[in-house]
Amino acid sequence: MLKAEKIGFRIAQHRLLEDVGCVVGPGEFVVVLGPNGAGKSTLLRVLSGDLTPTTGAVSLNGRRLRNWSPPVLARQRAVLPQQSALSFPFLVEDVVRMGRSPHRAVARERQETIVQEAMRRADVWHLAGRLYPSLSGGERQRVQLARVLAQIWDPTDLGPRYLLLDEPTSALDIAHQHQLLAIAREMLSGGELGVLAILHDLNLASAYADRILLLKNGRLVAAGPVAEIMNCADLAAVFGIPVQTIAHPQLAGRHLVITGHHVSDARPSS
Amino acid sequence: MRCGRLPLVLIGLSVGLMITSIVALSVGAVEIAPTQVIAILAHGLGLDLPRSFEPEQAAVLGAIRAPRVLLAILVGAALAVSGAAMQGLFRNPLADPALLGVSAGAALAAVSVIVLGATLLSGLTQVLGTATLPIAAFGGSLVATLLVHRLARRDGHTAVATLLLAGIAINAIAGAATGVLTFVADDNQLRTLTFWTMGSLGGATWSTVAVAAPLILAAIVLIPLHADALNAILLGESEARHLGFEPERVKTLLVILVALAVGTAVALSGIIGFIGLVVPHLLRLTIGPDHRWLLPGSALLGAILLLGADLIARTLVAPAELPIGIVTALLGGPFFLWLLASRRGQGF
């Protein structure tokens, strides 16, 4: 279990996070929602160990984050960055292979199999021999996904693994947004992996999340099962925009979210 | 796949270095045929080959050419590996010890020792003896590297423009200070100073090689041990941390090793530019940017190129000698311009 308790984070006088708690269990897809400046990325960086919280503590599988040695932690959790500015002409497969660098003890053949499988899973297998800088933004994002999948591909004997996704869909077209989140959900199926993702699109969150964390101004406004959060009044309050939800016509327990004013309402009535 | 070709490239470069070394040993005022070079070297190892040579030839080779060739190999390898490592550290292919003022920092420290060694810094020279010059150069390059690094970083990123501008500023300041020292120097010191500012391998003796070898070899052997971490740092420092590396520790260590290599090289041969820029670039074009191959490859190609440049420096206007820094600048400057032109539109 990836667990953050009473996290506070301050830079100078600014409180970026205050008293935030969150739990990601194995087999669980947790989505963090909130407007810009809510502290979503800060929370993710605290959970990944990039930032040390001013107050509170993060633990992974029962052990405090700072007590994990970096290479061992790297075999247990991977982080997909928002974007990766790699300007050197690496081959796509070499970038994916970097995901295997925490696994020096694994046999070479197995490493190669994992790299190939991860590239297939992320739909970049056909790009293997291309130069990374020549790819489009969306293709790069999928290559990075293949890299982080390769990093935590195999189970370890230290418990569940975790995948942290920082606004993973921002550079992707609609089909690849769904594809990426579907891949992340597929990884959950064994029940040995948990995912936490920051998303902006309420419908994507509604379609893929198990649980939702609602952040605003560095505070946790609400947390709970997706159906509950999608129907709560807090959602509209957090985003400052009218929100309506209707039951998804095909997915039981899921909702479609309609945001904003209706066109006729948006115009001043004479 | 490129993988199968990579070891071949390193083997090819090793053979190239051997051939270049033999050519460099054979060319000069006293003629020694390449086969005689091999015979003399074999004789030194207790092996007699059926090729005759004069004792005079063996003496010239042993006392003059061999130390010079070895120094060229060491300095060339040091500058090229340092260039490759700095480009990785700064995540920028335009980093170079000379462009960023690292060499100038080392030269300023060395010049200070030459001019003020007998007066202001006499305490220092008494304590450190003959090691004063290399140690001062190391300190100067370390300070310059840290300064550039500190100035160019904003929020965990290295700003390219700031990086190069910081290099210009440090070069200007070090150059001005060196100018002041030149102004107060006496004739004897002036001759030595010219050597620093333009670079030369003419001072090579067995004792300079003995000073340079352990320091430079240590850096050349230790830097490639962090090739994997450098590859990960190219993805970004957070990404490297998420992959289990400790980028801060690696960076500190590499900055010290680079300063050691560049400082030693500058202490013994003055400022020689562009090797650190050109060599990693040429290699990336052929074997790609993977530091596991790039770093050892840079050491070999850097040695080859500097040997070649030194060959040009001492034969073009023989019996006089061109400063080698001028040769590398003449060859490297246009290459740098070509690089800028061909990278236009890619954010550089």
* Percent of residues in β-strands of chain A: 25-35%
- The level of helicity of chain A is 25-40%
Global outline of chain A: globular
Overall pLDDT level of chain B: 86
Structural overview:
- The complex is a heterodimer of chains A (270) and B (348).
- Chain A has helices at 40-48, 70-74, 92-98, 108-121, 137-151, 174-188, 202-208, 226-230, 233-239, 263-266; strands spanning 2-11, 14-24, 29-33, 55-60, 63-64, 77-80, 161-165, 193-198, 211-216, 219-225, 243-247, 255-259.
- With 270 residues, chain A is an alpha/beta fold.
- Chain A has two domains: 1-76 and 159-227, 3-Layer(aba) Sandwich (Rossmann fold), CATH 3.40.50.300; 86-155, no CATH class.
- In chain A, strand 1 and strand 2 (14-24) form a beta hairpin.
- In chain A, helix 3 (92-98) packs parallel to helix 5 and helix 4 (108-121) crosses helix 5 (137-151).
- The longest helix of chain A has 15 residues, at 137-151.
- Chain B contains 15 helices and two strands.
- Helices cover 74% and strands 1% of the residues of chain B.
- Chain B is mostly helical and 348 residues long.
- In chain B, strand 1 and strand 2 form a beta hairpin.
- Chain B has a two-stranded antiparallel ribbon with strand order 1-2.
- Classes of the chains: A alpha/beta (270), B mainly alpha (348).
- The interface between A and B is medium-sized, with 31 and 25 residues.
